[in-house]
Amino acid sequence: MASSVVMLDRGNNTTCTVNLHGATVVSWRVNNQEQLFVSKQAVFDGKKAIRGGIPFVFPHFGSWPCGPQHGFARVLPWTLERPPERNPATGDVEAAFILTDNEHTQHYWNHAFRVTYRLILREKELHCHVQVVNPSRDRELCFQLLLHTYLKVPDVTRCQITGLRGCTYTDKTRDEAVFQEASEGVQVTEWTDRVYRNTPSEHIVTNVVSGRKMRVLKYNLADTVLWNPWSQDVQRLSDLCAEEYRSMLCVEPGQVTSPVMLLPGTAYEGSMMLQVM
Ligand code: TA6
Known about the structure:
Blueprint: E1 5-11, E2 14-19, E3 24-30, E4 33-34, E5 56-57, E6 79-86, E7 93-100, H1 103-108, E8 114-121, E9 125-133, E10 141-147, E11 150-152, E12 168-171, E13 177-180, E14 192-196, E15 202-205, E16 214-219, E17 223-228, H2 230-234, E18 248-262, E19 267-276
Antiparallel strand pairs: 1-2, 2-3, 3-4, 5-10, 6-7, 7-8, 8-9, 9-19, 10-18, 11-18, 12-13, 12-14, 14-17, 15-16, 16-19, 17-18
The structure holds 6-O-phosphono-beta-D-tagatofuranose.
Enzyme class: isomerase
GO molecular function: aldose 1-epimerase activity; carbohydrate binding; glucose-6-phosphate 1-epimerase activity
EC number: 5.1.3.15
Protein backbone atom coordinates (compact mmCIF):
# COMPACT_ATOMS: atom_id res chain seq x y z
CA MET A 1 0.00 0.00 0.00
CA ALA A 2 1.45 3.37 -0.99
CA SER A 3 1.75 5.71 1.98
CA SER A 4 0.48 9.27 1.92
CA VAL A 5 2.51 12.29 0.93
CA VAL A 6 2.55 15.85 2.18
CA MET A 7 3.42 18.76 -0.10
CA LEU A 8 4.90 22.06 0.96
CA ASP A 9 4.07 24.59 -1.78
CA ARG A 10 5.75 27.99 -1.63
CA GLY A 11 4.40 29.13 -4.98
CA ASN A 12 6.51 30.08 -8.03
CA ASN A 13 6.89 26.35 -8.73
CA THR A 14 8.86 25.85 -5.52
CA THR A 15 7.66 22.74 -3.71
CA CYS A 16 8.81 19.97 -1.40
CA THR A 17 7.06 16.61 -1.21
CA VAL A 18 7.43 14.26 1.76
CA ASN A 19 6.34 10.63 1.86
CA LEU A 20 5.20 9.66 5.36
CA HIS A 21 6.99 6.35 4.79
CA GLY A 22 10.25 7.15 6.51
CA ALA A 23 9.45 10.91 6.39
CA THR A 24 11.36 10.68 3.13
CA VAL A 25 11.64 13.91 1.18
CA VAL A 26 10.95 12.58 -2.33
CA SER A 27 10.94 15.83 -4.26
CA TRP A 28 12.32 19.36 -3.90
CA ARG A 29 11.57 21.60 -6.90
CA VAL A 30 12.99 25.11 -7.24
CA ASN A 31 11.46 27.08 -10.11
CA ASN A 32 10.02 23.77 -11.23
CA GLN A 33 13.50 22.18 -11.45
CA GLU A 34 13.81 18.93 -9.46
CA GLN A 35 16.92 19.03 -7.25
CA LEU A 36 16.79 15.51 -5.80
CA PHE A 37 17.35 12.16 -7.47
CA VAL A 38 14.74 9.41 -7.13
CA SER A 39 15.28 6.15 -8.98
CA LYS A 40 12.83 5.16 -11.70
CA GLN A 41 12.67 1.82 -9.91
CA ALA A 42 12.13 3.22 -6.43
CA VAL A 43 9.58 1.28 -4.38
CA PHE A 44 6.73 3.22 -2.74
CA ASP A 45 4.75 0.34 -1.23
CA GLY A 46 6.06 0.97 2.26
CA LYS A 47 7.97 -2.28 2.27
CA LYS A 48 11.48 -0.87 1.87
CA ALA A 49 13.39 2.39 1.94
CA ILE A 50 12.69 4.73 -0.95
CA ARG A 51 15.68 4.80 -3.33
CA GLY A 52 16.29 8.50 -3.53
CA GLY A 53 15.31 11.87 -2.10
CA ILE A 54 16.45 12.22 1.52
CA PRO A 55 16.05 8.95 3.46
CA PHE A 56 16.18 9.50 7.23
CA VAL A 57 18.84 7.26 8.76
CA PHE A 58 18.24 6.63 12.50
CA PRO A 59 19.14 5.17 15.02
CA HIS A 60 21.92 3.34 13.19
CA PHE A 61 24.06 3.93 10.10
CA GLY A 62 25.15 0.93 8.02
CA SER A 63 24.52 -2.74 8.68
CA TRP A 64 22.85 -3.26 12.09
CA PRO A 65 22.64 -6.56 14.00
CA CYS A 66 19.48 -5.32 15.80
CA GLY A 67 17.47 -4.41 12.72
CA PRO A 68 17.35 -3.09 9.15
CA GLN A 69 20.38 -1.53 7.48
CA HIS A 70 20.50 2.19 8.23
CA GLY A 71 18.04 1.76 11.09
CA PHE A 72 14.24 1.62 11.14
CA ALA A 73 13.29 5.31 10.76
CA ARG A 74 13.40 5.31 6.94
CA VAL A 75 11.18 2.21 6.67
CA LEU A 76 8.47 3.08 9.22
CA PRO A 77 5.46 5.38 8.92
CA TRP A 78 5.88 8.81 10.52
CA THR A 79 3.10 11.09 11.73
CA LEU A 80 2.46 14.59 10.42
CA GLU A 81 2.82 16.68 13.58
CA ARG A 82 2.30 20.10 11.96
CA PRO A 83 0.76 20.37 8.47
CA PRO A 84 2.35 22.77 5.98
CA GLU A 85 1.89 26.36 7.08
CA ARG A 86 3.05 29.51 5.34
CA ASN A 87 4.81 32.22 7.28
CA PRO A 88 3.00 35.38 6.08
CA ALA A 89 6.04 37.54 6.74
CA THR A 90 8.60 35.50 4.80
CA GLY A 91 6.51 33.28 2.53
CA ASP A 92 8.42 30.27 3.83
CA VAL A 93 6.42 27.08 4.26
CA GLU A 94 7.06 24.80 7.24
CA ALA A 95 5.86 21.33 8.26
CA ALA A 96 6.89 18.90 11.00
CA PHE A 97 6.91 15.11 11.23
CA ILE A 98 7.34 12.91 14.28
CA LEU A 99 8.45 9.37 15.09
CA THR A 100 8.28 8.00 18.63
CA ASP A 101 9.05 4.60 20.07
CA ASN A 102 6.28 2.10 19.33
CA GLU A 103 5.74 -1.64 19.01
CA HIS A 104 7.72 -1.68 15.75
CA THR A 105 10.74 0.19 17.08
CA GLN A 106 10.70 -1.68 20.39
CA HIS A 107 10.98 -4.87 18.35
CA TYR A 108 14.43 -3.74 17.22
CA TRP A 109 15.61 -1.28 19.87
CA ASN A 110 14.30 -1.18 23.41
CA HIS A 111 14.57 2.58 23.96
CA ALA A 112 12.07 5.39 24.41
CA PHE A 113 12.67 8.32 22.06
CA ARG A 114 10.95 11.10 20.16
CA VAL A 115 12.26 12.39 16.84
CA THR A 116 10.83 15.59 15.41
CA TYR A 117 11.75 16.42 11.82
CA ARG A 118 10.96 20.00 10.82
CA LEU A 119 11.21 21.08 7.17
CA ILE A 120 11.31 24.71 6.08
CA LEU A 121 10.99 25.55 2.37
CA ARG A 122 12.50 28.89 1.43
CA GLU A 123 12.90 30.47 -2.00
CA LYS A 124 15.99 28.47 -2.99
CA GLU A 125 16.63 26.58 0.24
CA LEU A 126 15.40 23.48 2.02
CA HIS A 127 16.08 23.37 5.78
CA CYS A 128 15.95 19.98 7.52
CA HIS A 129 15.95 20.29 11.31
CA VAL A 130 16.10 17.23 13.54
CA GLN A 131 15.42 17.03 17.25
CA VAL A 132 15.86 13.80 19.17
CA VAL A 133 14.54 13.71 22.75
CA ASN A 134 15.43 11.12 25.38
CA PRO A 135 12.28 11.01 27.56
CA SER A 136 13.73 8.38 29.88
CA ARG A 137 14.34 9.29 33.50
CA ASP A 138 17.17 6.86 33.97
CA ARG A 139 18.53 5.52 30.67
CA GLU A 140 20.95 7.10 28.24
CA LEU A 141 20.02 7.13 24.54
CA CYS A 142 22.84 6.41 22.09
CA PHE A 143 22.18 6.73 18.34
CA GLN A 144 23.59 7.62 14.93
CA LEU A 145 21.77 9.97 12.59
CA LEU A 146 22.31 10.78 8.90
CA LEU A 147 20.34 12.51 6.14
CA HIS A 148 21.02 10.29 3.14
CA THR A 149 20.70 13.02 0.50
CA TYR A 150 20.53 12.01 -3.18
CA LEU A 151 21.36 15.04 -5.33
CA LYS A 152 20.17 14.96 -8.94
CA VAL A 153 23.02 15.74 -11.33
CA PRO A 154 23.30 15.79 -15.15
CA ASP A 155 26.61 13.87 -15.04
CA VAL A 156 28.23 12.87 -11.74
CA THR A 157 31.71 12.83 -13.34
CA ARG A 158 31.42 16.60 -13.88
CA CYS A 159 30.65 17.38 -10.24
CA GLN A 160 33.16 18.50 -7.63
CA ILE A 161 32.56 18.46 -3.88
CA THR A 162 34.48 21.02 -1.82
CA GLY A 163 35.24 21.18 1.89
CA LEU A 164 36.81 17.75 2.27
CA ARG A 165 40.51 18.52 1.83
CA GLY A 166 42.57 17.35 4.79
CA CYS A 167 39.70 15.30 6.24
CA THR A 168 40.27 11.68 7.20
CA TYR A 169 37.93 9.20 5.59
CA THR A 170 37.15 5.50 5.77
CA ASP A 171 36.94 4.02 2.28
CA LYS A 172 34.37 1.23 2.12
CA THR A 173 35.52 0.35 -1.41
CA ARG A 174 39.01 -0.39 -0.09
CA ASP A 175 38.30 -2.68 2.88
CA GLU A 176 37.51 0.23 5.22
CA ALA A 177 41.07 1.54 4.88
CA VAL A 178 41.62 5.06 6.23
CA PHE A 179 42.97 7.88 4.03
CA GLN A 180 43.37 11.64 4.15
CA GLU A 181 41.71 13.69 1.43
CA ALA A 182 44.21 15.66 -0.63
CA SER A 183 41.82 17.29 -3.14
CA GLU A 184 40.04 20.61 -2.69
CA GLY A 185 37.39 19.49 -5.19
CA VAL A 186 36.62 15.76 -4.86
CA GLN A 187 35.41 14.12 -8.07
CA VAL A 188 33.51 10.86 -8.46
CA THR A 189 34.82 8.78 -11.36
CA GLU A 190 34.47 5.30 -9.85
CA TRP A 191 32.55 3.40 -7.16
CA THR A 192 32.75 5.77 -4.19
CA ASP A 193 31.70 5.01 -0.62
CA ARG A 194 33.51 7.15 1.95
CA VAL A 195 32.79 8.26 5.50
CA TYR A 196 34.61 11.59 5.99
CA ARG A 197 35.09 12.44 9.66
CA ASN A 198 34.66 15.81 11.37
CA THR A 199 34.12 17.68 8.13
CA PRO A 200 33.60 21.46 7.85
CA SER A 201 30.07 22.79 8.08
CA GLU A 202 29.90 23.71 4.39
CA HIS A 203 30.26 21.78 1.15
CA ILE A 204 29.67 23.16 -2.32
CA VAL A 205 28.69 20.69 -5.03
CA THR A 206 29.28 21.96 -8.57
CA ASN A 207 27.39 21.10 -11.77
CA VAL A 208 24.14 20.01 -10.19
CA VAL A 209 20.84 20.61 -12.00
CA SER A 210 21.04 23.34 -14.68
CA GLY A 211 24.80 23.56 -14.11
CA ARG A 212 24.17 25.35 -10.80
CA LYS A 213 25.96 24.80 -7.52
CA MET A 214 24.40 23.33 -4.39
CA ARG A 215 25.51 24.52 -0.97
CA VAL A 216 25.20 21.90 1.76
CA LEU A 217 25.39 23.41 5.25
CA LYS A 218 25.27 21.23 8.33
CA TYR A 219 25.01 21.84 12.07
CA ASN A 220 25.78 19.24 14.71
CA LEU A 221 26.29 16.58 12.04
CA ALA A 222 30.03 16.06 12.28
CA ASP A 223 30.57 13.70 9.35
CA THR A 224 29.88 13.59 5.63
CA VAL A 225 29.31 10.39 3.66
CA LEU A 226 30.02 10.45 -0.07
CA TRP A 227 28.45 7.66 -2.11
CA ASN A 228 27.98 6.70 -5.70
CA PRO A 229 27.40 3.01 -6.50
CA TRP A 230 28.93 3.27 -9.98
CA SER A 231 28.60 0.24 -12.23
CA GLN A 232 29.98 -2.14 -9.62
CA ASP A 233 27.64 -1.54 -6.71
CA VAL A 234 24.56 -0.73 -8.78
CA GLN A 235 24.23 -4.39 -9.78
CA ARG A 236 23.22 -5.40 -6.24
CA LEU A 237 20.50 -2.74 -6.05
CA SER A 238 17.18 -3.94 -7.50
CA ASP A 239 15.67 -0.46 -7.17
CA LEU A 240 18.27 1.42 -9.20
CA CYS A 241 18.52 1.19 -12.99
CA ALA A 242 21.96 0.32 -14.38
CA GLU A 243 22.81 3.72 -15.89
CA GLU A 244 21.11 5.85 -13.21
CA TYR A 245 24.27 6.06 -11.12
CA ARG A 246 25.53 8.76 -13.50
CA SER A 247 22.61 11.00 -12.56
CA MET A 248 22.98 10.90 -8.79
CA LEU A 249 25.43 11.91 -6.11
CA CYS A 250 24.90 11.18 -2.41
CA VAL A 251 26.31 13.86 -0.08
CA GLU A 252 25.13 12.79 3.36
CA PRO A 253 25.61 14.90 6.50
CA GLY A 254 25.50 12.67 9.56
CA GLN A 255 26.62 11.95 13.07
CA VAL A 256 28.01 8.47 12.51
CA THR A 257 31.69 8.22 13.60
CA SER A 258 30.89 9.36 17.12
CA PRO A 259 27.30 8.39 17.99
CA VAL A 260 25.19 10.88 19.95
CA MET A 261 24.90 10.01 23.64
CA LEU A 262 21.84 11.64 25.23
CA LEU A 263 21.57 11.73 29.01
CA PRO A 264 18.11 11.09 30.46
CA GLY A 265 15.71 13.98 29.86
CA THR A 266 17.96 15.76 27.35
CA ALA A 267 17.64 16.52 23.63
CA TYR A 268 19.89 16.65 20.55
CA GLU A 269 19.40 19.08 17.67
CA GLY A 270 21.05 18.93 14.28
CA SER A 271 20.28 20.29 10.84
CA MET A 272 21.11 20.31 7.16
CA MET A 273 20.42 23.21 4.81
CA LEU A 274 20.46 22.76 1.04
CA GLN A 275 20.72 25.93 -1.05
CA VAL A 276 20.65 26.29 -4.84
CA MET A 277 23.30 28.85 -5.75
O1 TA6 B 1 25.54 5.96 2.53
C1 TA6 B 1 26.32 5.06 1.81
C2 TA6 B 1 25.83 3.65 2.07
O2 TA6 B 1 26.09 3.26 3.40
C3 TA6 B 1 26.48 2.70 1.06
O3 TA6 B 1 27.36 1.81 1.70
C4 TA6 B 1 25.29 1.99 0.40
O4 TA6 B 1 24.96 0.83 1.13
C5 TA6 B 1 24.22 3.08 0.54
O5 TA6 B 1 24.41 3.58 1.85
C6 TA6 B 1 22.81 2.63 0.24
O6 TA6 B 1 22.34 1.79 1.26
P1 TA6 B 1 20.85 1.19 1.09
O7 TA6 B 1 20.59 0.44 2.35
O8 TA6 B 1 19.91 2.39 0.92
O9 TA6 B 1 20.88 0.36 -0.17
